[in-house]
Design brief:
binds iron/sulfur cluster; 8-stranded mixed β-sheet; 3-stranded antiparallel β-sheet; single chain; 19% strand; 280 residues; 8 helices; alpha/beta
Amino acid sequence: MNPLPADLLQRHPCFNADACHHFGRLHLPIAAGCNIQCRYCDRRFDCPNESRPGVSSQLLKPREIASYLNSTLKKHPEISVVGIAGPGDPLYDPALTFEVLEKIRATWPDLILCLATNGLNLPDCVDRLAELRVSFLTLTINSLTPATGAQIYDFVCYRNQVFRGQSAAVLLAEQQQEALARLQAKEIWIKINTVVIPGVNDQEIPVLAERLSAFRVDLMNLIPLLPVPGTPLAQISPPPQDRMQQLRRQAGKYIPQMSHCARCRADAVGFLPKVRQCSA
Ligand code: SF4
Ligand code: SF4
């Protein structure tokens, strides 16, 4: 039986492209740290003109959440979803994230809650997230192949131990799949984000989608690499749009595809900015 609350889907602008014209989202920038290092990510910038994940002009503390949400929800009545998506990883410090989610639930019991994570700490957090009625979850999985993962991640830090190379990639992939297994019976919509990195993981995207389809995955969001200056993958050019369309068609045989992602900042507010729709 499908355990998912279909009514919430009507009001989520990312999981449902039709909803993005009527509903907006708010990202709460509370998660500063991260437990892995992706070789395309640099969170040091604080430029309000730069729009990409990992960028935020401010970091909020749990005690600031209520007044921030109060004023922002008044200014933006279109917001139906409150998400935590960085600028680091929300489950790097699960206690802080749970404190914030509990505060929201206490005052806004009907708000839709959403969370985006790399999945390293997710298996241990699935039950609490479900109790707090987080109903949408995005998990970034760029590869399940150790040799490829070793090219994408500099390190993975788990239970005070640092892993590098293929052992880091294996550990991350195991945690991600364990989390997916635990999520299956929960009332949580699941989206996989995958950054498409030409020459690194693009060839294996269809196989990745096929492997992930062994789980209940509701949506897959292939995101073209956005080369960030100073990062190890900065010299790789983003995949062209026709390549993205081809990959979405191939992966779409296994998992429904998202093609309206705006690659939002960690402190994004309101309607999604307009993006060119792919015809894939
Ligand atoms: Fe950056 Fe997210 Fe990767 Fe952490 S998981 S290094 S915040 S892209
Ligand atoms: Fe939605 Fe993509 Fe923006 Fe996340 S980054 S809020 S999935 S449009």
